[in-house]
Write a structure and sequence with these properties.
The chain has about 130 residues and is mainly beta. The protein is built from two helices and seven strands. InterPro entries: DUF7480, T6SS_periplasmic_put. Pfam families: DUF7480.
Length: about 130
């Protein structure tokens, strides 16, 4: 029981490292633009320098059991040719519904063999809570 005070000291550096600038996770942008949804990314050197290619774009929604289930995917992992630019709307061909919770996952990299170049962009959203650009 005397060890309880060690837990915050041990876990604090671990959690601090998880949200640092070097992590591969980023927040994707989702907004309404011209009556369509716009999924985009920004704020990373690989994107800003025009080096990032789209590897995979996945859309999930919450099912009746409360679990997120994949409902749509564009997979370019084996042959990434689509260059991702900052604030560029990425193509998602899906009919979204009101009052549903969605999650978008965008994976980019400038090299499929260099793990450090991969970035994973995530965003949970509903149509009701999106802003208009």
């Amino acid at each position: 029981m005397e060890m309880k005070w060690y837990i915050p000291i041990i876990l604090t550096p671990l959690f601090a490292g998880c949200v640092g600038e070097n992590t591969s996770f980023r927040i994707a942008d989702v907004a309404k633009k011209d009556n369509k949804l716009c999924f985009s990314v920004k704020g990373d050197p690989t994107i800003e320098q025009g080096q990032a290619k789209l590897l995979r774009l996945t859309l999930s929604t919450r099912d009746t059991n409360g679990q997120m289930q994949e409902i749509w995917q564009a997979d370019h992992f084996d042959n990434p040719t689509y260059i991702v630019n900052p604030n560029q709307c990425l193509p998602v061909n899906y009919h979204f519904e009101q009052n549903k919770e969605y999650n978008i996952t965008i994976i980019t990299a400038y090299s499929t063999t260099n793990v450090d170049s991969k970035r994973i962009w995530l965003k949970n959203f509903t149509l009701n809570n999106l802003t208009t650009k």
